[in-house]
Amino acid sequence: DTEVTQTPKHLVMGMTNKKSLKCEQHMGHRAMYWYKQKAKKPPELMFVYSYEKLSINESVPSRFSPECPNSSLLNLHLHALQPEDSALYLCAAGVAGGETQYFGPGTRLLVL
Amino acid sequence: KNQVEQSPQSLIILEGKNCTLQCNYTVSPFSNLRWYKQDTGRGPVSLTIMTFSENTKSNGRYTATLDADTKQSSLHITASQLSDSASYICVVRRMDSSYKLIFGSGTRLLVRP
User: Residue B78 in contact with residue B21, Cβ under 8 Å?
Assistant: First the structure.
């Protein structure tokens, strides 16, 4: 079983909706990540938080807004998404410095 | 350019057979290489991780090899099971302060009864 949990497992939203994806880990790792993965493609890095501070933003559109309330939680707030944003969104946690990353099960997002 | 290439793109084998997946990389400076297994619609699960000095690492029926000189790695699956059907992703990390992992495109394995 994964030690990184994500909710919800599935999400369907319209282009005018506001929703949030949640990620939680209790491994004590100080780096947390958001990835986007399209079908049959490798994950693409979106954001990296290190010690609850945003350290990397891979030029992600502002309709995706990350938040790290504490060392165990990572949120991804979604607003005014486009159908092409439909994908599997993966959260990962790891030792600061990126040596190891443990992935959550993902949230499958469909934007209509 | 830092790249990770995997072959084959897809593979079909019969249950009980062995198979070997390949990974070539041009990432430099090299820190470590990991093999992940990803079931459809699920997050990747780490199988093995190897550093520069490690040649072989096993995890049950999975055995990974690394040749840092030729920048090649392989993942050998022994006595395949239906549950081995998944994508296998080779991931390399550079030895710098970057958090970025460089992902291969994966090999999609289908094990048939």
Answer: no
**Chain B closest-CA separation from residue A6 CA (Å):** 10
- Measured between beta carbons, the chain B residues lying within 8 angstroms of A48 are 99
pLDDT in tens, A56-107: 899 999 999 999 999 999 999 999 999 999 999 999 998 866 567 899 999 9
Query: In this complex, is the C-beta atom of A95 within 8 Å of any C-beta atom belonging to chain B?
Result: no
Q: Return the biggest CA–CA distance within chain B.
A: 45
CB atoms within 10 A of CB A14: 10
Chain A nearest-CA residue for B6: A42
pLDDT tens-digit profile of B38-81?
A: 998 899 999 999 988 899 999 999 999 999 999 999 999 999 99
CB–CB of A45 and B100 under 8 A? Answer: yes
Rounded CA-CA distance A98/A31 in Å is 7
**Is A106 at the interface with chain B, CB within 8 A?**
yes
What 3-state class would DSSP assign to B71? coil
And the tokens for B33? 């290489």
